[in-house]
Amino acid sequence: MAREENRRITDIGTLKALAHPLRMKLYRLLFVAEVATASQLAEQVDEAVSLVSYHLRKLAAHGLVEEAEPRSSDARERWWQPSSEGVSIRDADFRDAPEKAAAHLAASRLFLEQRAEMYRRYLDERAHWGPEWNTAAHDSEALLRLTPGELADLKKDLNELLKRYDEQGRAREGAGDTEGREHVALHVYGFPFRV
CB neighbours of 66 closer than 8 A, spacing ≥ 6? Predict the structure, then answer.
């Protein structure tokens, strides 16, 4: 099934479904894995398969994940995949009511906390990544003076650059170039992580 390129979340119900701490972890892990079973995801989050299955069904009810083609002959296994190539959540879609603004703020804080936890985990494990990854990994801060339009242009340029690198990496991996390839998270910081 062809997936949407990027799902724009505009309703409070879908936002709340994604903004649950375990569901966001599951969504992120599923996004990285591309397809997985509840059992595989349960191992990674150290939770019961039944709980993970419940949360996957909640994500599916909001169109964030969907059943995938089976990857094994075990008919009891249910495979899942993200229903789009990503999600976008824009402040403008949640400004028109106080409860929507509060839900957006709570979701944004959760996403920030989880991203910070990913970076903290990298910092704690940095010694195990070796010199090549530690040289390539970075954190940076830039203090710029921009207008809203210039900031929007910068965001667009960065998104295009990230998309180009993602497409190149996936194409190379698809062609068999897997040596030394790891998952990389790029927030404000860029760092490797393993699942």
Answer: 1, 60, 80, 81, 82, 83
